[in-house]
Amino acid sequence: SRNPHEIAMVEDMTEEQREKKIKEKKLMRMGVMTALALAIHNFPEGLATFTAAIADPNLGIAIAVAIAIHNIPEGIAVSVPIYYATGSKRKAFRYSFLSGLAEPIGALVGYALLMPFMGPVLFGIVFAAVAGIMVFISLDELLPAAREFGEHHLSIYGMVLGMVVMALSLLLFM
Question: What is the pTM of this model?
């Protein structure tokens, strides 16, 4: 009998155990990539909220509430794969929290570094880059993972619905 504290050798693992390890590794990678992408995404989002709040406090509050609501599914997108990869609620919470922490840090750092240069062109470039990163992560990491775990149609519907909502909000509020 093997000591439960010994490191298991790959040769000693059953095929089922190997598949489980591979699945956990993929889930962990997906969770970490999502956390990094969302941290990058949240950085300019924090700057936008901060800038809006300075220009018009009522607008800043409205944007902060909207962002808080949309951060809920973002946190879920990070924490669920981490939880299923590790079985640790603490790790899942930690990764979600750290990716969300990028928002207030983005507000402060972005304001300090970019405000002297901030104009419509730089603002557009920053948001276009962030949007590109998010689309890449969705297409390269999240959709393939959803396909592998059998939920790809639902994920595609959600992504298309999100794009439609964003397009409509641009049309309605411009």
Answer: 0.60
* Rounded distance between C-alpha atoms, residue 57 and residue 50, angstroms: 9
Distance CA 123, CA 120 (A): 5
Which percentage of the chain shows pLDDT scores above 90? 6
Extract long-range pairs of 137-141: CB within 8 Å, 24+ residues apart: 137/33, 137/34, 137/37, 141/29, 141/30, 141/33, 141/34, 141/37
Question: What are the phi and psi torsion angles at 97 (to 5°)?
Answer: -60, -45
Under DSSP, the state recorded for 138 is I
Residue 121 CB-density burial (10 A; 0-12 exposed, 13-18 middle, 19+ buried) = exposed
In whole angstroms, what is the distance from residue 65 CA to residue 47 CA?
15
Q: By the 8 A CB rule, do 54 and 60 touch?
A: yes
List b or e across 43-73, with b for residues whose CB sees 16 or more CB atoms inside 10 angstroms.
Answer: bbbbbbbbbbbeeeeeebeebbeebeeebee
d(CA 174, CA 160): 21
CA dist 53 and 51 (Å) reads 5
